[in-house]
Design goal:
Blueprint: H1 3-137, H2 142-155
């Protein structure tokens, strides 16, 4: 057999194989490659969208955190003011109560002093009467009277 004829005979199945591949196999492979490229492109686009959404979500979270910090600072300030007001109100009530208690104690002390004075007056009157009786029962003598007056002073 001639080498040229062999080449032509081998070339025919190669051409048929190339034509079959180009007609039936290559479009399927190209389609699969295109679908794979489209999936990759979609995945990259989704990743970019997710990245931008993450950045916007981070910004929103930071803004919310800043707002929360501001609100919590404001609430803490309000609570401190309210606590100070409560403390001042309690101090005022305590001072008012102390003043009432002091006034009541002073009134009680004044009443006790008045009662003590009245009791003392009664005792002095009784002693004066006793002294007068003792002086009148005995004879009038300056030494005896002085002694009775001294005893009266000691009893007072």
């Amino acid at each position: 057999m001639n080498i040229n004829a062999t080449l032509w005979i081998q070339w025919i199945p190669f051409a048929i194989l190339a034509w079959v591949t180009a007609q039936f196999i290559w479009p399927v492979i190209a389609k699969a490659l295109d679908e794979r490229a489209a999936k990759i492109a979609d995945g990259l686009a989704a990743a970019d969208r997710a990245k931008s959404e993450l950045a916007s979500a981070n910004k929103a979270v930071e803004a919310q955190l800043a707002q929360t910090r501001t609100e919590s600072t404001k609430l803490l300030g309000d609570a401190e003011k309210r606590a100070a007001a409560i403390v001042e109100e309690a101090k005022k009530r305590a001072e008012d109560e102390a003043a009432k208690i002091l006034a009541q104690a002073k009134a009680d002390a004044d009443q006790q002093v008045a009662r003590a004075r009245e009791a003392l007056r009664e005792q002095v009157a009784v002693l004066a009467v006793k002294g007068a009786e003792a002086i009148l029962h005995k004879e009038v003598n300056a030494g005896v009277h002085a002694e009775l007056l001294t005893r009266l002073k000691q009893e007072l």
